[in-house]
Amino acid sequence: MTAVTAKRPRQALSGRRVREWLTFLAFVLPNVALIAVFIYRPLFQNIYYSTLNWTLGSKFATPVGLGNYRDFFASGEASKVLTTTAIFTVATVGLTLVLGLGVALALNRRLPGAGFAQATVFAPYILSGYGVGLAWLYIFDPNIGALSAVLRDVGLNSPEWINSPPWTLTMVIIVYVWKNLGYAAVVYLAGLQAVPGELLEAADLDGAGPVRRFFTVTLPLLSPTTFFLMVTTILSSLQAFDLLIAMDKLGRGARTLIFDAYLTGFKEQSQAGYSAMLSTVLFAILVVLTLVQLIVVERRVHYR
Amino acid sequence: MSATAPSRRVRLTPLTVRDYLILLLAVLVVVLPLGYMFLASFKGPGDLATTDLVVFPEVWKPENYSEAAQKVSFGRLFLNSSIVTVVGAGLKVLLAILTAYGLVFCEFPGKKYVFWGVLATMMVPPQVTALPNFVFISSLGGENTYWGLILPGLGTGFGTFLLRQSFMQLPYEVIEAAHLDGAGHWRRLWHCVVPMSLPSIATVALVAVVYEWNDYLWPLIIITDPEMMTLPRGLTLLQNSESAASSFGVLMAGTVMVLLPILAVFAILQRHIVNGFTQGGVKG
């Protein structure tokens, strides 16, 4: 403390100041240290790992530079995995937003019982993805599941949800949307409640029907909410894991980028370097998306 | 129709009916699968290994639960999950309170950058850090231990962010008055700031509880000893040992044990939980 005081004699209050700084550090340091050790350190270490040819558990690793990246992007694997990731993300985000908005519109009329409906629809969002996946796996089972029995009653054969990759991906998308729909509905509901009633009334007086009012007044006013939801649901879809591994243990249909990173790193051949490359690619995608969000939000603030 | 009360809020127009149908459909889509899973947890092989739609078990078989508990020691797993959830969420909230207090009420050059550094962690999913953290924790001997399970997830950007927002909205005069009365930072924190922010703290705590209880990837990686597994991790073990269709009942019994505690908490505190999850992002 005295050293600092001596260096900057200009500040008479130095002692008190330094005490204040130390207090700040005492408050903040435990969390910051944990973040540094368990988030930032591994983040950069992961990038380093991604340049190695290294089997998890082995003491030896060979530096291969960008070799892992080249292997991934030059082989057919990148297009396969990235296509699966894109299909999963676009389908889950699109369905979650459209269905969530539908439910929010119904909730917004504040009918008796709407509170109960809102809580019920939200509930799956907070459940264990792994547990939810198992419960639905039983329903989807092509032989003994409830869904196949219902389909048979209406004269349809159950698709091979478990053994045919495209159907597996479809199944996982359906269950993921089921689980996340309530989140979008609640966020949209908050957006809808902020839509000024006078605007809708004015449109009504101008002779716009309910459909037109929705598309010309409500939907444009909801665009910030839509944008927010789009970003958050894209980010969480890219990180979806529990549900996928519960329903598609070997990753035959729903092998998205993150699922691939787990399987190649910890299962199969335990290729830790290759796995680190995959999660680095995922992180790069997340950073780009977040930056896009920040830039767009910034723009919106300026225009207001 | 006859029951239409003279209230201005509800009129049974076609639109009201349509919206009721939408809500009813949405509720059924959520409740039916969960109810079906719950009923399946009481079904024996006869009700399960059939192509017919059996909703209610012909023979109720609560033994599924004891059988699940034999295959995987669910009592122990429940204890592990509870320990990890209470300790993990408790420490996370404490860290968030301290960090948010420092960021709002203490002075420090470059405080803004510390905040951005903490906030930016919300962009880093645990999956990206899992592999290096696994290598690091296992080199310290943390495999199959409580501390190895809890420690890497404690640093929190989300909790800090939410509590910082809440602390900034507190009436400054009250805290200033305490300051003038000679209360130091520590006293001001626990006697002024925390009591005034209890709803936000509860929200952060609930989000952390849900997150810790459901966490799957990290326990999957760091725990291999069945005695140290958390509940979702234990389900994997059960799923691997129960591949026959007729044993779905046992698997569903295990699943009910994972889902039900969180559903019960949600039933009581749903408003706080919904608020927590819809304010600023997804991560605990």
Automatic annotation (TrEMBL), chain A:
Membrane topology: Multi-pass membrane protein
Domain ABC transmembrane type-1: 82-293
GO term, biological process aspect, one: transmembrane transport
Localization annotation: Cell membrane
Cellular component terms (Gene Ontology): plasma membrane
PANTHER family the record matches: ABC TRANSPORTER PERMEASE PROTEIN (PTHR30193), INNER MEMBRANE ABC TRANSPORTER PERMEASE PROTEIN YCJO (PTHR30193:SF37)
Family: Belongs to the binding-protein-dependent transport system permease family.
Record-given protein name: sn-glycerol 3-phosphate transport system permease protein
Organism: Nocardioides panzhihuensis
Automatic annotation (TrEMBL), chain B:
InterPro entries, alphabetized: MetI-like (IPR000515), MetI-like_sf (IPR035906)
Location(s), subcellular: Cell membrane
This protein's record includes keyword Signal: no
Protein name: sn-glycerol 3-phosphate transport system permease protein
Domain of life: Bacteria
Lineage: Bacteria, Bacillati, Actinomycetota, Actinomycetes, Propionibacteriales
Major site of localization recorded for this protein: membrane
Family: Belongs to the binding-protein-dependent transport system permease family.
Topology of this chain in the membrane: Multi-pass membrane protein
A GO biological process held by the record: transmembrane transport
Keywords annotated in UniProt: Cell membrane, Membrane, Transmembrane, Transmembrane helix, Transport
GO CC annotation terms, alphabetical: plasma membrane
Transmembrane segments: 20-39, 83-106, 113-134, 146-163, 189-211, 248-269
Residue ranges constituting the ABC transmembrane type-1 domain according to the UniProt record: 78-269
PROSITE patterns xrefs: ABC_TM1
Record carries keyword Transport: yes
Gene3D superfamilies in the cross-refs: MetI-like
Species per Swiss-Prot/TrEMBL record: Nocardioides panzhihuensis
